[in-house]
Amino acid sequence: MSAGRGQETVRIVVDGRELEVAAGVTLAAALLDAGVQMFRRSVRGDPRAPLCGMGICQECRMTIDQVAHRRACLVTVASGMTVSTQGAVSS
Amino acid sequence: VAERYDAIVVGAGIVGAACARALALEGMRVLVVDGRFAGGGTTAAGMGHLVVMDDSPEQLALTALSVELWRDLSRKLSHEVEFDPCGTIWVAEDGEQLDAVREKQRVYATHGVASHMLDARGVAEAEPNLRSGLAGGLLVPGDAVVYPPRAALWLLDDACARGATVLEHSDAAVTDVFDHGIRCGSREIEADVVVLAAGAEAASLVPEVPIVPRKGHLAITDRYHGFVRHQLVELGYLTSAHVMTSESVAFNVQPRVTGQVLIGSSRELVGWDASMNRSILRRMLERAAAFMPSLADLSIIRTWTGFRPATPDKLPLIGPWPSIAGVWIAAGHEGLGITTSIATARLIADLVVGRTPPIDASPYAPARVLDAATPVHST
């Protein structure tokens, strides 16, 4: 699956940067597909990304539409969604 | 031949760790024994506030000294101890409580403890997530917060750097305490000074010690940096803490350096039952949300219980235990053990070497509980 082979896409905003990602999938899947490798940082500053993909491991927590600590693997990506890695990507 | 040390400390919680360090600083050869592991009991379950409290003049003297000693120590602590000089705000809900806050400020001032009155606007600016309509509060900027198990380990490591030895786990479980010594299984170990710093478990070694476990619940949230900036305590907290008979909850939240919010507090007398009491947990969280409504939107990631070592007169037992030669007590600090550990250790070390402590140690003398227990026969 890759956004750009003719399938439907949506535009979302990740850390203030607009990104075109696959539609109809979880936010976690859409971000991984778009090449986002760090979803957040641990308390010690280490990069974190989805591990289980099914809501258990808590590793994919992000601030989604201003709500902190939502699990990207349990949220379906939607047009206009704003997502913050709280500095994991930009720093 | 029995093993011999200058001092044995029974219990490697924060009080035992502080005592071990203080005695090692006096040049004594110190052994610390703990039947489980260092910092793993009441210390690990506590909130970690370093707070001046004025439930009684004796409590005020001990907490004020200890917070001062913690501040002196703070620049030496490792960053894992998470010392955060966030200060405390005592929150007043109405005019009557604001009057009590003024009185509190006056009492603190007489003990040299700085504090500042906040009006309704001041408290709202200091803590935007508090509900609107509060009357004000008292900011005590010298108060702080630490991560208790790490603080205990730091104290213990510092003691070890000065020659102390630590024995942990079941081999180090003390089964008996006698004149100038202890028994751990088949081992007998002797010392000039044996300090019982086993919290509420001191009563299992010396049954006359009137310390009972007073259960509490805590909850901690995920990381929300900046949600709360100071330790917040409702003015009614002292009432909740003081009344021993019934179960109670009080609003008390703390910012952690991780951005997490630690939420307390509850008090129950149910023996050593560590199970989660969902109804009191619910009351505790509702109390917190009544002061900080948006707390209800945060994710709690863990809840747990712990046992405060409570004494009948709300003061710790610090000093020699008259009925066993060479045995001292440093226990019964209830919910203030993290705060008062350092001052307790200072008093113990001063009394052991025969120096005059910085505050009058007599109100904490363990002998008082033996006097209190003497039956009064009516004539």
Can you characterise this structure?
The complex is a heterodimer of chains A (91) and B (379). Chain A is mainly beta. Chain A is 8% helix and 31% strand. Chain A has one helix at residues 27-33; strands spanning 9-14, 17-22, 40-41, 47-48, 61-64, 67-71, 82-84. Chain A has a 5-stranded mixed beta sheet with strand order 2-1-7-5-6, with helices on one face. In chain A, strands 3-4 form a two-stranded antiparallel sheet. In chain A, a hairpin with a 2-residue loop joins strand 5 (61-64) and strand 6. With 379 residues, chain B is an alpha/beta fold. In chain B, strands 1, 2, 8, 9, 10, 11, 17 and 18 form an 8-stranded mixed beta sheet that branches. In chain B, strands 5-6-4-13-14-15-12-16 form an 8-stranded mixed beta sheet, with helices on both faces. In chain B, strand 17 and strand 18 form a beta hairpin. In chain B, helix 3 packs across helix 10. Chain B is globular. The A-B interface holds A 43, 61, 67-69 and B 222-224, 258, 297, 299.
List the helices and strands and how they pair.
The complex is a heterodimer of chains A (91) and B (379).
Chain A: E1 9-14, E2 17-22, H1 27-33, E3 40-41, E4 47-48, E5 61-64, E6 67-71, E7 82-84
Chain B: E1 3-10, H1 14-25, E2 30-34, H2 42-45, E3 49-50, H3 57-74, E4 88-92, H4 95-110, E5 116-118, H5 120-126, E6 136-140, E7 144-145, H6 148-161, E8 165-168, E9 176-178, E10 181-184, E11 187-196, H7 202-205, E12 212-223, E13 231-234, H8 237-242, E14 248-255, E15 260-267, H9 278-291, E16 300-310, E17 317-320, E18 327-331, H10 337-353, H11 367-373
Parallel strand pairs in B: 1-2, 1-11, 2-8, 4-13, 11-18
Antiparallel strand pairs in B: 3-7, 4-6, 5-6, 9-10, 10-11, 12-15, 12-16, 13-14, 14-15, 17-18
